[in-house]
Amino acid sequence: MRPDLAACYGEERLPRYTSYPTAPHFSPAVDGDTYAGWLNAIPRHVKASLYLHVPFCRQMCWYCGCHTQIASRDEPVSAYLALLCRELELVSRQIGRRLEIGHVHFGGGSPTIMRPEAFLELIGAIRRRFEVLPSAEIAVEIDPRTLSPAMIESLRRGGVNRASLGVQSFDPAVQRAINRVQSFEATAAAAVALREAGVTGINFDLIYGLPHQTVASCLETVGSCVALRPDRLSVFGYAHVPSFKKHQRKIGENHLPGGPERLEQSCAIAGALKRAGYLQIGLDHFALPDDAMAVAQLAGRLRRNFQGYTTDTGEVLLGFGASAIGRLPQGYVQNETTVRGFCGKLAGGGLATVRGYALSRDDRLRGDIIERIMCDFGVDLGSVCARHGAASEPLLKSSRRLQELVSRGVVALDGCSLAVSEDSRFLVRSVAAAFDAHLGGSSRLHSRAV
Ligand code: SF4
């Protein structure tokens, strides 16, 4: 990894490109009526995916960047779940048939905050409205601190086969500074119990760049994680945006690692995971070689969606719940962000969509190019442009950022084929940004490139 490039590009605030264009470009021009029309036009052959957002946690982690709120009682969660079921009914009615589903993802927040019987009711409501295929991946984000045996049993009965466990760091000083105290023993017990219940896919989420975090503490955390042999790990840099996420003000900025230290931590974690037998997937995921995500990357089938890297190749993603984002062939839709606003919309009998984005031909072309760069660290512009009936030459010539990245050796161009250099892969978002026609204006909402 070249320090000169880290100094030049590392502080840039750029999108993570989990969509193109990114969410700050969504507008109210796409509303519930637009979404209803798009749902009605879903082609017959399409296999879809579902994302259900559960925006409640028992306690706020100071680093949190998710749409969530604190619920100390069960009642607000139950009331919300009732409206989530109503949204399932409204959307499926609008589609007009039982759509085949290949992926279901429960995210949050902490989905396992639900009462175990409520989770079974919710998954029952999904199965009544949609044709969840026997081969479907059903994934749940899990807070190991509050995972009960009864919930594990409900996950088993509900057919859950993948769990993402929030870990972040096992360093007690870091855990205190981020208001998330979670022992290794609790995490290990959760992973073992889930596997025994048949939830065979286990992901761990780690973060670097947290207050008091050091290379040594990152390596210790990786060592503890590797001992539990998760199939996948995601490793994100902490995004400090206190003007946007007010609880992040509780994090002392003078305890945050600077740019060079963040880079060292990121490299140290990646090196340790590779030595432990994991393959790096794209920018920030790691997987065992026989894991489906590693296989997809090798085959050039890796995709990117709002959860990050994915094996999900579905053309339609339906989002349910407050702030949930969906993707349809025509564009993106997003629900009312707050729980109160979401519940108000559903209680009023309408869809909860409040913004979105209708894709143009140029957006589709650039979106495909950006996705391939993020997934494969390179792209054959000629073949992507040919698929879209466009010429690659103007794209190559019009991007000053691309020309600069080529001159600095970040990118190698061979005709119309572009490859990110091995030692510059940490700058893949900067390379993707060279094809972003909407870049600028929303940088304070994005995280640093490193
Ligand atoms: S458990 Fe996850 S979603 Fe909830 S506050 Fe912590 S980081 Fe945010």
Description of the molecule:
The chain has 450 residues and is α/β, with parallel strands linked by helices. The radius of gyration is 21 Å and the shape is globular. Strands 10-11-9-8-7-6-5-2-14 form a 9-stranded mixed sheet, sandwiched between helices. Strands 15-16-17 form a 3-stranded antiparallel sheet, with helices on one face. The protein is built from 16 helices and 21 strands. It has helices at residues 3-9, 32-40, 75-95, 116-129, 149-157, 172-177, 184-196, 215-227, 259-275, 292-298, 339-347, 361-376, 381-387, 393-398, 400-407, 428-433, and strands spanning 13-14, 47-54, 56-57, 69-70, 100-108, 131-142, 162-168, 201-208, 232-237, 279-281, 285-287, 303-305, 308-310, 316-320, 325-328, 331-335, 353-358, 378-380, 411-414, 417-420, 447-448. Helix 3 (75-95) packs parallel to helix 4, helix 3 (75-95) crosses helix 11 (339-347) and helix 4 packs parallel to helix 5. Helix content is 37%, strand content 22%. Strand 12 and strand 13 form a beta hairpin. The structure holds iron/sulfur cluster (SF4). Residues 57, 60-61, 64, 66, 68, 108-110, 143, 166 line the site of iron/sulfur cluster.
